[in-house]
Amino acid sequence: AKSEGRGTYRLFEPHFERERLERRRTEVELAAALDRGELNLVFQPQVDVESERIVGFEALVRWDHPTRGRILPGAFIPVAEGSRLINRLDAYVLRSACEQAKELPGVTISVNMSPLNLRHAGMVDNIIATLRQTDFDPRRLEIEITESAILDASAEGQDALARLRGLGVRLALDDFGTGHASLVHVRRFPITKIKIDKSFILNLGVQRDAASIVEYVVRLGRSLGITLTAEGVETREQLRFLRAFGAHQAQGYLFSPPLPLQAAAALLKRQAEA
Ligand code: C2E
Ligand code: CA
Ligand code: CA
Ligand code: CA
């Protein structure tokens, strides 16, 4: 009778209500996790397509939960974006990345920035303060923003990007091809890199359209003087396509998964000695 009762109760509890409570719980826990330092970074190499040498690392956040174990960003970034927590999270990641990148000399460090942060008035000032406090060269920092952010960038957002670029910070357009941004939009912003979304790379050699799209984006991007990076490169065949099209950089499991700082530093050191 008891289990029957519980089942009945569920029927009356709308799905969205449970989801809302779950999100709320994650939100509260995430705020505490930020305070307790449970968020950690891993670093994934970005390589030059021709030489396959590491030219940068993308910092990706992980939540090491005391009981639930390691949680991937897909499970908590959307929750953070639903509240003001995303500002704190991205600021925390930026600061940690700038501090830890001292172990990764000579290469670019890329940090993801939620589109919501673009509208946050204090964002640029916060980045400037962080760069200064961590004594990090702005020219070594790359901020990755998704193309949706570009599309709805307000005047303030555009201004923020221009200010960052003025400091020497590089700006990468993430997940290119998944939204509605075109290269026309790209030209209106001080973008220095386009990251072609992994869904297109996955289909290289599988779907003829994917190859055409990638080739087209690489050509146009190159003609605009923008660095072209492919994400999610998993096979040699995909890399061959990218070489043929003239893409500059690649990132993906073919080269390395995201690594803990010490492993990333070791990889870089081995390369310097080779
Ligand atoms: P993203 O920026 O597109 O990051 C690339 C994702 O692809 C990462 O997932 C990475 O681990 C994964 N990946 C790398 N190589 C391969 C590959 O060869 N094949 C496949 N299938 N996947 C690959 P991850 O680490 O789970 O991050 C997911 C997303 O969460 C990121 O997508 C980014 O949008 C967001 N994110 C991560 N860290 C942060 C952060 O600090 N702040 C913000 N705002 N967002 C973040
Ligand atoms: Ca990214
Ligand atoms: Ca991406
Ligand atoms: Ca993505």
TrEMBL record:
Domain spans labelled EAL: 23-272
| Superkingdom | Bacteria
The name under which this protein is listed is: EAL domain-containing protein
